[in-house]
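Dear colleagues,

As part of the handover before I leave the project, I'm documenting each prediction I ran so the next person doesn't have to rerun anything. This entry is a single chain, and its sequence is reproduced below.
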Amino acid sequence: MPALTYQKGGLKVADELFLIVALLHRELPNRDAFTIGEVLKRAATEGLGAGRVDQRSLKLHAYQHAAANEPPGKGGKYRLVYRESDNRIRLLTASDYVHPDRHQKFYPEPDEVPEKYHELLEWAKQRRAEPGKQDARWLQGLFELRGLGKEMWGDADPDQYVSGLREGWE
């Protein structure tokens, strides 16, 4: 089944969300995250989703479809933003937890956003790579091991397998 692509006026909603949150971070550098109300208000002033009847799809992307730390639903598996425990939204940093089932893009593709935002994309990439924002992901390897070798075990019962290994032990 092909993945759904939410698109309005040629710009994907996930890409719009990324651009809006990046704009907020650049305009308000002392703030670490933003409420969905702030995101929606800034989106309205930027006018990227002007053809949209309501902001429901932007909210869904902020809370689930593009939130890297949330389990992916039927929507995208993007890793564009991070949803704080108080539901505020911010750009993803290099040290943030990313749900292991999320494997799609970290950034919008430059050819999929208006040219006037290309500099903003570069700014966001540099911001993510800044010293202090790139803490060691010491558990990253464990997340990547999820599901490894599952085809070898098939339907084997773990308890029976371990019992079989222990046969003959003294």
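The chain has one domain: 7-139. Strands lie at 7-8, 11-12, 81-83, 89-91.

All the best with the project,
I.
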